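Fold this sequence, please.
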Amino acid sequence: MTIITLLPHITKPTRITNHTNTFIDNIFLNSFECETISGNLISDLLDHLQNFLIANNLPMCKERSNLLIRDYSNFDKDSFQLSFELVNWKHVLENKSINDIFNSFFTTTSDIVNQFKEGIKERNQI
């Protein structure tokens, strides 16, 4: 994971029994610039520990005014769902190769999504 700049922040076993200590949970963060505190919370009730990560000075949070949110107030959910229900999925999925099936599925779903994107506006977060 470090090859793709994801740093592990849980470095101790996360499941502990009388016979084993197992490292089964991970938290990765792709920022080298922020200060972090991470670890496991110990509980007598479970053999599985809860994990936490506290990150300060995240670069992506410094310029909050540039963040956008999606406004779904004008989005017609029922028409969107109906568009998917009206697709002849058997025809979409009947291609021979997995690549053809994926391309057909992707094209069909993209066309539907693009029809409804006018109902979803991006605006600055307050």
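The chain has two domains: 2-61, 64-124. The helical segments are 59-62, 77-85, 89-92, 98-116.
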